[in-house]
Amino acid sequence: METPSLGRRIAALIIDWAVAALSAVALTNVTYPPRNPGENLVIVGFFVVEVALLTGLLGFTIGKRILGLRVENPQGVPIGVPRAIVRTVLLSLVLPAIVMNDDKRGLHDIAAGSRVIRV
Predict the structure, then answer these.
(1) What dihedral do alpha carbons 109, 116, 93, 27 form, nearest 10°?
(2) Of 36, 78, 109, 112, which residue is the least packed, with the fewest Cβ within 10 Å?
(3) What gap in Å lies between CA 61 and CA 59, rounded to an integer?
(4) What percent of the chain has pLDDT over 70?
(5) How confident is the model at residue 94 (pLDDT cuts 50, 70, 90)?
């Protein structure tokens, strides 16, 4: 099991954000870049729903799949939707993702009982 680089994880996050933003633009009346805080909240909502569902059920998002990453619990299986929601909401706040321990797990991973690995 290899711990992925921070650059790979950020690249996956950028891809996931782009997918969420494009989904929000395609399915709602928001624009990108957002014109107001309400539109930004819609995009963040799409991000949280998409990332939490994919991470919880499959163990990866579109960005993570493209870059060969997976989110799992200590037993090596997807973390489930409830934990993925906690993880994604904390990730959306940015700071918990920046604060890492020696194992390169952010506070969002610690709170959700998850880890990101390279596959």
Answers:
(1) -130
(2) 36
(3) 7
(4) 100
(5) confident
